[in-house]
User: What shape does this take?
Amino acid sequence: MAEAQFRTPKGTHDLLPEDHVFMTYIKKAVRHRARQAGYKRIETPLFENRAIFERGIGAHTDIVEKELFMVSSKHGTDDDSQPEFALRPEFTASICRSYVEHGMQQLPQPVELYAIGPCFRHDRPQKGRYRQFNQFNFEIIGLKDASLDAQLIQVLSRILEDLKILDRLCLQINNIGTAENRGAYVEALKDYFIGKERNLPDLDRKRLETNPLRLLDSKEEDTQILLKSAPTLEQFLNDESKAYHETVLEYLDELGIAYQPNPGLVRGLDYYTQTVFEYWDESTGAQNAVGGGGRYDPLIELLGGSNTPGIGFACGMERTVWQMKQAGIKPPNKDQVDVFVAQLGPEAKKTCLSLISQLRDSGVHTIGALGEASLKSQMRLADKFGVRYTLLLGQMEVKEGVIILRDMAAGKQKQIKFDTAVPAIIKLIGDKNLDTYMLKDHMGEEDG
Ligand code: AMP
Assistant: This one.
């Protein structure tokens, strides 16, 4: 095969049909569990005013410092002012912006929203880390209660269970206290590292300056060794955070959700308070978390709204697909073609168009009238498409009002009356296997 002249940009991928069936399946599970728990779907723009991410997520987080894809609304290069927009690296900040913008505090609280779609991070692409990837995302905004934390985690757990990958994953959970708790802890951590900076790897020495909490989930061995005798965040939690955490864990027990308390789990973003959690694949740990989230009580206020609590999670769909493939899960594929209609001659070609159309309207997946090749090569094509039945219509058949029905697997064929072709095929395929649906019953659910 010739080398393609154009390829997808680094860190992006075509979602080919064989992978799309996984995505469709995941979305189905997501929509199903969302509806059961009263979440409504929201969609926000792919790009936003960059300040929404910078303020919400935090200027010194990896996502903002290194990974924001900037977008300029200006055309041309003569303007060297800073770009105004950024592609969304995640959903939470955008959804909170939307909550404030549309006055959703007037709605009954909490407001439960979910979103599915692409996010963008300008990271160095590597396995499981792309520049464009898809997330499904759930948020509960406007009411704070430990039972909501537990129920949110349960939704994620149920989806992972539906997709048959829950048993490959392990829920890590922690409480990182309030902003004040973390402030006091960060001071203590900085004090502890005075005189020890030299022993820190470069990146972590920088983090000590800009975002010391990130040291806790550092992958550097030297840092982890130093942290062994450092003060812990747990020692700085106020009583309310400790009690809240206990209650969340109690509720998770009540719901039968397995978890592993992880005092080192902080998640990188500034907006998190108290509950944070991630689902890890035990073999790769934090490196390739499948999903994660936490409570972000200060975020809405940071974005100009009133003091409003919130909690949410995001799950990476590419990593979910990878887990499903590792687990040998094959999503049901409804893309198979049932019938190939082969024809020869202008009359037959014209006649078979309405036959194809009738079959399709009856819910039979049908292709045909693909060109003017010989019947023999059309049959070969039918075979390659893997159809179960072929209908053959030549000039003779048109004249006599008949058609040939061939069972591809059995290699047998018979002549039947043209008018009986559609009911004959329906009978062979079986009513319950027909792909029919009433748009009014499914409006807005099967797309996206
Ligand atoms: P985060 O909020 O950064 O933990 O992201 C939530 C989830 O999105 C992660 O657990 C991953 O499954 C997924 N994710 C985040 N960044 C990427 C990326 N660059 N490529 C693919 N998936 C990602």
About this structure: The mean pLDDT is 91.
